[in-house]
Design a protein that fits this description.
This is Ferritin. It contains 5 helices and no strands. The protein is mainly alpha-helical.
Length: 179
């Protein structure tokens, strides 16, 4: 049976798996809220974002398996389901992406402090990904705030704007494959 070395990186990575699964669930809650309001483009965006966060968690799981470290699949934290206007869930998502960026930076710094160059290299992809995630969510929040009460302006924006290609050949492998 694999064991995990006593390191802050391994501890933080296990915690990050929980954060990624929680983010996935939060994005499902946001998508369902938009879906219930008949805002299909926003719903689609957050359903896709949920799958992406799940894939990130499974990339981390695969990495731990590959390093022969123990893996425990955690439960998730509570998620918010109720909002009053579209800017609220998007602001929540933007703040969540900023927090994940901080968490990934802490993981990278822990790997560096421990001299774990393999883990340092592993985290570089996630840091690059977070730059894109924060920027994308900030843009969506700005568009939503500008649209005010005209929620369909956001839908039209999403219909016009190309979405990022989820197939990144440089992405780490996900346990069980990406969805």
């Amino acid at each position: 049976m694999p064991t995990s070395p006593q390191s802050s990186f391994v501890t933080l990575l296990g915690e990050q798996v929980r954060h990624e699964f929680t983010a996935s669930q939060q994005y499902i809650a946001i998508a369902v809220w938009f879906d219930d309001l008949d805002l299909p483009r926003l719903a689609e965006r957050f359903y896709a974002q949920s799958v992406e966060e799940r894939n990130h968690a499974m990339m981390m799981v695969r990495y731990m398996l590959d390093r022969d470290w123990s893996v425990e699949i955690p439960g998730v934290d509570a998620v918010r389901n109720a909002f009053s206007k579209p800017a609220e869930p998007i602001a929540l998502a933007y703040a969540q992406e900023q927090k994940v960026t901080e968490q990934c930076q802490a993981l990278f710094q822990a790997a560096r402090a421990e001299g774990d160059v393999l883990s340092e290299q592993f985290m570089l992809w996630f840091l690059k990904e977070q730059v894109e995630e924060v920027s994308s969510m900030k843009t969506l929040l700005t568009i939503t705030e500008r649209a005010g009460d005209d929620w369909f302006q956001v839908e039209e924006h999403l219909a016009r704007e190309p979405q990022a290609d989820p197939d990144d050949a440089s992405a780490p492998e996900a346990a069980g494959g990406v969805l």
